[in-house]
Write a structure and sequence with these properties.
Elements: E1 4-12, H1 16-30, E2 36-38, E3 45-55, H2 59-66, E4 74-86, E5 89-99, H3 101-117, E6 130-136, H4 142-151, E7 156-162, E8 165-171, E9 178-185
Antiparallel strand pairs: 1-3, 1-8, 2-6, 4-5, 4-7, 5-6, 8-9
Length: 188
């Protein structure tokens, strides 16, 4: 086994109805003819913090810091479509967070100094809560993709409950990443 695991902290999307709406939009995205790699339904999540390659000995230290985060289960309203970095050069298609972003930001803000104390470098991108639903591989049919995103910029996917903060492993394979939960913290 490797000495390192590629890891991130996230809230999973477990609501079946919301997952179905995400899949429906992904199918419609694919129909634009854009060159996309859709995120598998079981892999869609809200990333709180990407950690990168973490030594296996650090996993428990990260978990100890996770358990110090104070939050109660909260609702997250998933609404809207957008792209990073912009419609002229889309690289990622995302579903937005309309409600619950304050609580997500609070979890991130509590985590960040604890992770820095463990030696993690500050997150240079900052925190922008979203769900990645597709990656754009080329500019093929970019205008159709942009039109679809603009027309669905307020699409309502529904609400999910953020209950458990999970430390996830991302194993990269030729067919796409495989995510598994290393540790979970579910305050009650």
């Amino acid at each position: 086994m490797s000495q390192f695991v590629r890891a991130f902290l996230a809230f999973d999307i477990e609501d079946v109805a919301v997952k179905k709406k995400l899949e429906d939009v992904q199918l419609r995205l694919a129909q634009t003819g854009a060159d996309l790699k859709l995120v598998e339904a079981e892999n869609v999540h809200i990333t709180v913090r990407f950690l990168g390659d973490v030594g296996v000995g650090v996993v428990d230290k990260v978990f100890e810091q996770m358990k110090k985060i104070q939050f109660k289960p909260f609702d997250v309203q998933i609404s809207g479509l957008g792209v990073f970095p912009n419609l002229n050069f889309p690289r990622v298609v995302w579903a937005g967070i309309a409600g619950g972003s304050v609580q997500l930001q609070d979890v991130f803000t509590q985590l960040e100094p604890r992770l820095r104390a463990l030696g993690f470098v500050a997150d240079q991108k900052g925190f922008a809560p979203h769900l990645t639903i597709a990656r754009v591989r080329s500019a093929r049919n970019k205008s159709q993709l942009s039109d679809f995103v603009l027309k669905n910029s307020r699409y309502d996917f529904g609400s999910v409950k953020a209950v458990c903060l999970r430390l996830k492993r991302s194993e990269l394979t030729p067919r796409g990443p495989i995510y598994s939960t290393l540790r979970e913290y579910c305050p009650m």
